[in-house]
Amino acid sequence: MSEKEIVPNSSNFEMILRSAIGLPGVRINRESFLRKELSKHHEDDIVNKAIATNPAQAGLSVKNLEHIAKACITFETRKVSAISAVAGLPGGFAMAATIPADTAQFFGHVIRVLQKLAYLYGWQDMFKGDAVEIDDETANELTLFIGVMFGVGAANAALSKVAALAALNVPKRLMQQALTKGTIYPIVKKIASAIGVKMTKAAFTKGVGKIIPVVGAVASGGITYALFKPMSLRLKKYLATLPTASVDFYKEPHSDDEIIDVDYSDITIDDEDGIDENEVTEGFEETD
User: Which end of the chain is more exposed for a tag (fewer CB within 10 A), N or C?
Assistant: First the structure.
């Protein structure tokens, strides 16, 4: 079985993304999540303001949110690792033939944890209502977040530009334009390609483990843990540097002149950006 047969690359990464989004429990309600987590440590007036605006505008610093963010990462890591271990047992998920299902589960938890971190660090709702299908704006936004998790440099650059608009609470139409205008599509496709290659390599290792009884369960769950937690920590660390998470940013006045079209022309992404096979697990040594 070749790596190419196991995990699709850029041409159908969106299919994996949309499949994962359709899984039960993947979508996180921003208001419910923030109220539940913040109310454990803060007064109602702060919690209400954080929901109405964002935690940074409510005066909650990155340091204030650190323990909540880490707890969310730990919770999701344990869940996805347990599911992956079950899939690695003989007969679990029908062995290698259903590796795509295991991949969808993995991405489902990736999307869950990135939503939680995004909401803590100042982003608004990613999903619109209860619609089953997601629009291009949401798909592109999620791809950028996942790209950051996989260490694709262009994803960091592109997301920082979107964050500049998000921090200024620009009208929804401008955010939609920023995430769907023609210049972002080549970037998103390149990022999706890099994610696809990295997932192919990681899932291939898991696939080999699945055909080894019992040991396969340990290997599959262990590899998932080794990938998922550092990816989540990487995203947490990056989101904490953006203006959406900065209390100081909101202490300064900002004029409408700052609300301009996002220019992606200075973002460069080479064919090999983020997809060097020697870097698949590089940087995954982060710990609490």
Answer: C
Residue 57 amino acid letter? Q
Residue-wise pLDDT tens for the chain (288 aa)?
343 343 444 456 778 888 888 888 999 999 999 999 999 999 999 999 999 999 999 999 999 999 999 999 999 988 876 654 444 433 333 333 343 556 778 888 899 999 999 999 999 999 876 666 788 888 889 999 999 998 888 899 889 888 888 888 776 777 777 777 766 777 888 888 888 777 666 554 444 344 334 334 434 444 555 678 899 999 999 999 999 999 999 988 876 566 555 566 677 665 444 433 333 333 333 444
pTM of the model: 0.79
Closest of 143, 280, 283 to residue 198, by C-alpha: 280
Question: Which letter does DSSP use for residue 132 in this model?
Answer: S
Q: Give the span between the Cα atoms of 47 and 233, in whole angstroms.
A: 24
- Rounded to whole angstroms, how far apart are CA atoms 113 and 45? 26
35-64 b/e (C-beta count within 10 Å ≥ 16 → b) = bebbeeebeeebbbbbbeebbbbbebebeb
**Between the CA atoms of 41, 45, 49 and 52, what dihedral angle is there, to the nearest 10 degrees?**
110
Report in angstroms the alpha-carbon separations of 229 from 88, 99, 232.
Answer: 19, 20, 5
Residue 137, sorted as left (phi over 0), alpha (psi -120 to 50) or beta, turns out to be alpha
